[in-house]
Automatic annotation (TrEMBL):
This is UDP-3-O-acyl-N-acetylglucosamine deacetylase. Transmembrane segments: none annotated. Belongs to the LpxC family. Pathway: Glycolipid biosynthesis; lipid IV(A) biosynthesis; lipid IV(A) from (3R)-3-hydroxytetradecanoyl-[acyl-carrier-protein] and UDP-N-acetyl-alpha-D-glucosamine: step 2/6. The gene is lpxC. InterPro entries: Ribosomal_Su5_D2-typ_SF (IPR020568), UDP-acyl_GlcNac_deAcase (IPR004463), UDP-acyl_GlcNac_deAcase_C (IPR011334), UDP-acyl_N-AcGlcN_deAcase_N (IPR015870). Catalyzes the hydrolysis of UDP-3-O-myristoyl-N-acetylglucosamine to form UDP-3-O-myristoylglucosamine and acetate, the committed step in lipid A biosynthesis. Keywords: Hydrolase, Lipid A biosynthesis, Lipid biosynthesis, Lipid metabolism, Metal-binding, Zinc.
């Protein structure tokens, strides 16, 4: 079994990408996105997208560019004083309302990273630099489709460094009341998710997470919320100055009113598909592709990150292959 070296202090057994002393650049172009189990990848070319943050409501421009082998995914807040780097790694997770946020070593915050992280993971991109000129990534229409379209156009390069995958060796589970989440050994990455919403009933989705299944089944699913909770929360956020749902509206979220989604759902069981989309993005903060099966019941960002922490803090539960 390959040994992990080095590890991050105070987090024994942490799986993460380490930049090599002399990183290799792209050596060949991959036509399409057939996965390679042997070498790392990066983007074929950079792309830029702009939009507004779901919580801050602020305009933001994001440039996603190729990176060297071993770099991993790194967010860079672009400022007049210079860029501040925030690696996309689980131990930098900071609890924020209704999103996944990362706090860098110098205190820099980047929020709502989950949709881009899920898309990069599904498209098999191991290394990329993500420059943004505001705190929060754009929400677009609440889905991951804009990220997927840009990644498909950018293409993918292979790099001259082996890719490691994190294989689950034994089941790890976390619970919070009637919410629970587990990951168990499997030869591929797959998810079975369940969600029950009042007046909408139980919703389920399960399947292997591949580029095609992600684009077709998960990426179109939008962030969602009930109007009866969202409107008071938006008013509270404006009154207190907190960045919560300031950019939420009928164009950026699937708004639930009573027993229906205003304007209709994008396919059956859209809310549970979006929860699985978020889960894929949160698991991507492990820093390596995962070989395991996840079972999720009423999960959310906090529980997703609790599972990642419980898994990676137990070096007997996984191995790098």
């Amino acid at each position: 079994m390959p040994q992990l070296s080095p590890v991050v202090p105070d987090f024994p057994g942490l799986a993460r990408n380490i930049r090599p002393a002399e990183p290799s650049r792209a050596v060949s172009r991959v036509d399409g996105f057939a996965r390679s189990a042997e070498v790392q990848t990066t983007l074929g070319e950079a792309f830029t997208l702009s939009g507004y943050g779901l919580h801050t409501g602020r305009a933001v421009t994001v440039r996603v560019a190729p990176a060297d082998a071993g770099a991993g995914i790194v967010f860079r807040r672009v400022r007049r004083s210079g860029p501040a780097c925030v690696p996309a790694l689980w131990h930098l997770y900071e609890a924020q309302p209704l999103c996944t946020a990362l706090r860098g070593p110098d205190g820099t915050l980047v929020r709502t990273v989950e949709h881009l992280m899920a898309s990069l993971s599904a498209f098999g991109i191991d290394n990329a630099t993500v420059d943004l000129d505001a705190e929060e990534l754009p929400i677009f229409d609440g889905s991951a489709l804009p990220w997927c379209a840009a990644l498909a156009q950018a293409g993918r390069h292979t790099l001259a460094l082996p890719r490691s995958r994190l294989r689950i060796r034994r089941t790890v589970e976390v619970r919070e009341g009637d919410r629970w989440l587990s990951i168990e050994p499997a030869e591929r990455f797959s998810v079975a998710g369940e969600l029950a919403l009042a007046k909408l009933g139980p919703m389920r989705w399960q399947g292997e997470i591949t580029r095609d299944s992600f684009v077709e089944a998960l990426a179109p699913a939008r962030s969602f919320g009930r109007l009866k909770w969202a409107v008071p929360l938006k008013l509270y956020a404006y009154a207190t100055g907190r960045p919560v749902l300031r950019g939420a509206n009928l164009r950026t979220t699937a708004a639930i009113l009573g027993d229906r989604v205003i304007g209709g759902m994008r396919g059956a069981d859209e809310p549970v598909r979006h929860r699985i989309l978020d889960l894929v993005g949160d698991l991507a903060l492990i820093g390596h592709p995962v070989l395991g099966h996840v079972t999720a019941r009423h999960t959310g960002h906090r529980l997703n990150h609790a599972l990642v922490a419980a898994l990676l803090r137990d070096p007997t539960a996984w191995e790098l292959v």
